[in-house]
Amino acid sequence: MVMSDEVTVQRVLSGIQPTADSYHLGNYLGAVKQWIDLQNGYDAFYFIPNLHAITVDQDPVELRDRTTAGVAQLLALGIDPEKSTIFVQSQVPQHAELAWVLTCLTGFGEASRMTQFKDKSTKRGADRTSAGLFMYPMLMAADILLYSPQLVPVGEDQRQHLELTRNLAERFNSRFGETFVVPDGFIPEGAAKIYDLQEPTAKMSKSGTNPKGIVNLLDAPKTSAKRIKSAVTDNEGVIRFDRENKPGVSNLLVIQSALTGRPVDEIVADYDAAGAQYGALKTDTAAALEAFTTPLKQRYDEFMADPAELKRILDRGAEKAAAVAEPLVADVYAKMGLLR
Ligand code: AMP
Ligand code: TRP
Questions:
Q1: Is 206 annotated as a binding residue?
Q2: 284: domain range?
Q3: Which terminus of the chain has fewer Cβ atoms in its 10 Å neighbourhood, N or C?
Q4: What's its top-level EC category (predicted)?
Q5: Which ligand has the minimum distance to the alpha carbon of residue 133?
Q6: CB-ligand 2 contact for 52 (6 Å cutoff)
Q7: Is 193 a catalytic residue?
């Protein structure tokens, strides 16, 4: 018999919450752009964790709209449903089922140590904190373990949740028998951290205080260009990359580089040779952004104008996801003595 030279394709899984009307440039350059690259070499599963979104108050119409808009943005950005499995969490009931099992395997103290929960619940106060927010990390662990991915690209703030996921996988495996793949978190190569345009030492974030600091992918291209042009820089007047002393200029360089694919060094060298000022840096960065968002918005509008096609994509995604998740949950139930 010929030994198979077939390479097992590794699985990658990630999710992005539908908590704003538009994703911002940080979501794209720091996460989704890498997902798009990864779908070519991996068996990719990408989803909208809408069950996570109800751990805090949500308006039903808004949640529904943002979920659809989230899917349309992922598609418009380049997640290809022919290559990746793209789905909405609430359409695959196994997420909620496995989350309960994992919750019962998690210590109360262990869950109480999750720093994101501690931060959020302290800010909101105990009476305005749902028990769902407390269970959030176990739901996230279920999202991951259902699909046995080797790799889970997440941002720094999700590292502790991923560690919990690994611990739960190992705990289940040792108590009930080998079942879950213990996943690795990783920050993919090329993931850029994008900073607020008005406050360039803070991460660009949907909860940023000044809307002018954020570039929303779905804003009118002119609006975004204006925001780039009014980005905070410094008084030195020299274009060079220096995060510490020149956070605003460095941020613009990173944005331009990520959007054009040209290395920062090369961009800096060209400006240097031309004796360029910040005006040129801003104009070029704004132009690169406009060249990116104009066709993006067009593709997004096309997806939004065809709800039947979106539904087809999501039905197929949910079906493909459930085909992986259901046997896993059945196995877990059987191993735990739960009738199904
Ligand atoms: P969030 O909306 O903060 O939950 O983030 C969703 C995804 O976008 C995560 O993978 C984050 O790591 C990524 N992300 C959010 N903000 C930024 C940023 N300013 N720079 C780079 N990546 C970001
Ligand atoms: N908690 C993640 C965030 O806020 C989103 C998320 C939910 C996720 N489930 C996941 C990310 C599973 C990766 C894998 O960013």
A1: yes
A2: 221-301
A3: N
A4: ligase
A5: 2
A6: yes
A7: no
